[in-house]
Amino acid sequence: MPGFAAKVTAARLVVEVAVAASNSNYWAFQLKNKGTAGTGTTNVLDAGDANKTKSTGGINSGAGLAANAVGTFTLHGTSSNRDVSAGQILVFEIDAALNPSDLVDAVVELDLEATA
Amino acid sequence: MAAVQSFGTFSNTNTIKVSFVRSGGTPQPYQFSDSTSTNPPNGILRFNSTTFASITQIYADDLSFNGFNIGGWLDKIDDQPDVRVTVSRFNDPSITRVFKVNSVVNSSGYRTINVTPIYASASALSDGTPIVLISSKADPIRDRAGALVVQQSLEGFPSGSFVIQKCTFQDADNGLRLDEPTPSNNCADNTIVQSNFSDCSSGVKVNSIQVVNNTIINSDFNECDVGIDHEKGGDIRVFGASMNGFVGGVFLKVRGGGNNASSFVLYGVRLEIATGKPSLIETTGSFEANILIDGFSWIGNLYPVTYNAGTTFIKGASTRIDNTIYESLAASNTGNSPATSPDWWRWRGDWVRPVRLGQFSNCTVRGAIIKGPFASVTGGGAKASLRLDNCRLNYIASDVITVDSTGYWKQIDCTNVDALPIADDGNWPDYPSVVAQTWNNGATTFTAMKLDVTDTASASGSLLMDLQVNADSRMKVDKSGNLYGQSFQTLDQNLSSSNPGLIVTQTWYNSSVVFTAAVINALDGGSAAGSMLLDLQVSGVSKVNADTTGKLSVQSLDVGGGVFVVEENGNIAMSGGGAILDVNSGDVVGIANLSAANLTLGGSVTANRFLSSPSAASGAPTFRAMVTGDVPVSVRTVSVSRAIGSCTAEKAPYAFR
């Protein structure tokens, strides 16, 4: 991704159509650092329910995703997981549990603070 | 042999003694009669008064008690000068009367012996007592030819110009009487040599204004109340004498003078009196007395300190209550009052001043040893004076010499060993003890040691004191009061919170004077690096020091209650929130790193200011590349947006790069 070393300081998601929160039908989001070879597995975001559209402990305090509103991801608790070197590949992964409502015209925003 | 008289009876087996008495010699037997009439019967002897002191004549019949006519012998009694007669009880010689014979007169059938009474024993000589009359050459005197007449006598009456040598005068009111109005020589010019005066009220009695120029050489006065009682007369010179005894009195008492000037010279008089009130001289007369005392000394204790009930005395130690001296009789003698504890203390008499000068006295004492209160100089309007010349002062205190308002005394070239010996070759190892004093009055301001120099002219380097070891000064005080010493240390046992080790107290009393409390002025004629002007340490570790450049090194600086700490690594820490470092328009230089929450650049700024690290070589500014840390986080943060479109659950999972 970036041509310089940076630290992921924030990650957000915006959707055009609201996604209701559900503990059974929900979306799960993760940003993985795949390294320069594309084989890495480092989670940049918290792997728990905070980055899921679950009604319990989910994103936006379990409120799901509102239409055209920013949903803020919870970053991984380990600082080094959020470090990104020049040339490393960041992959935004989206997974579904059962049948949540569609993500419509979603946009992912990532804040990178240069560290060198 | 013919029977003369009988007394009592003899019994069988009685032991009798028969004495044979030569006719016409001495002693002669008489019977005493207490009648005072003249012309006594045969064998009778009478006095002309029943009062001994009033007897001027003895009436002795020409016939002695054993019937011999001894008139011729009686006439010969006064053929020689200075003869005495003794009348003693026949069977008890202790009952006796002694007279000086003035003349013998033939009174037809009896002789009248004109006498001067000398001595009477206490017991009465009763009427009818058998007695003996003894004639003797009374005076223990050698004549001009040197013939020794008598070696021991009760009293002596030299007429004049005699050499009285190796004579003993004992048990007399007045041993040697220099008071006889002998018309030829007036008791003058006698020389008493190597004689002894024992148990006399006065060893030598001088009681005539004509008595002059008598000299005493190497004589002893033992157990005499007064050695020389000078009631009247002129000069007495003593060359070597000692006064001994257990309870003694005054060696020379001058009670009067006469028409002749009275001068007294005492050379080498020595008192060896254990107790009592031994003293050398007392003058009370109303005539001028010029006195020279040379080499006087006495044996006895030093003037001891006043008794203290809390003091433990060893056996033999002395103390005093007022001027009464006591000697400890036991070891570990504590709390036993000397005046009331005779089992613990022995009375050693009263300390009296050995020299007591009254009116008209002019006395010089040379070479004496002063051991305690020494002299009193009084006399009222007739001023008395005393001069101590080359004496040794073992005791010096305000009461060593007392004077009345007109008395005068002065010491010349005396050695005061009670304070600072001029030279000590180790002969006084106990010297420090003699400087001990007792301060025992809370109302008195004492001064233990005082040196008062009258400086009319002296070099600038003159010293009030110079203490040396091996001729090397260790501490000295110059005449300006500057103190020079090797070091100063305090005594640990005297330190306390209220008594710090060093106090310099000054009173600045004049607003127009620039005072300086303390100055350390090191005259640096060469010193190694690290030399210090000041180094304050705790347990050998420097806490505050100032080097020769004036650099002050401190562990911390407490300013106004806050703490300004300069640590050993040079870091500076200031206690208290909001502490301010204000250099008051000065410069702060040498800062390698400046960490500040706020940095305000004040004043009129006309150009950009650069924070830079100047080159050590040229002073030109050098710049470094900007690093990420130089950029604010908000500036160096980029946001990346990625549209991922729409996702359905059926097609999940998704991955976006």
Question: Which helices and strands appear, and what pairs or packs with what?
Answer:
The complex is a heterodimer of chains A (116) and B (657).
Chain A: E1 6-14, E2 26-35, E3 42-43, H1 59-62, E4 70-72, E5 83-84, E6 89-97, E7 103-114
Chain B: E1 28-32, E2 44-47, E3 57-61, H1 71-76, E4 83-89, E5 92-106, E6 110-120, E7 130-137, E8 152-153, E9 163-165, E10 168-170, E11 174-178, E12 191-193, E13 196-198, E14 202-207, E15 214-222, E16 226-232, E17 236-254, E18 262-283, E19 289-294, E20 297-298, E21 312-313, E22 318-321, E23 324-328, E24 333-334, E25 345-350, E26 355-357, E27 361-366, E28 369-370, E29 375-377, E30 385-389, E31 392-393, E32 401-403, E33 408-412, E34 415-416, E35 463-469, E36 472-478, E37 483-485, E38 532-538, E39 541-547, E40 552-554, E41 556-559, E42 562-566, E43 572-574, E44 613-614, E45 621-622, E46 637-647, E47 654-656
Parallel strand pairs in B: 1-2, 8-10, 9-12, 10-13, 11-14, 12-15, 13-15, 14-16, 15-17, 16-17, 17-18, 18-19, 18-20, 18-26, 19-27, 26-29, 27-30, 28-31, 29-32, 30-33, 31-34
Antiparallel strand pairs in B: 1-7, 2-3, 3-6, 4-5, 4-7, 5-6, 21-24, 22-23, 23-25, 35-36, 36-37, 38-39, 39-40, 41-42, 42-43, 44-45
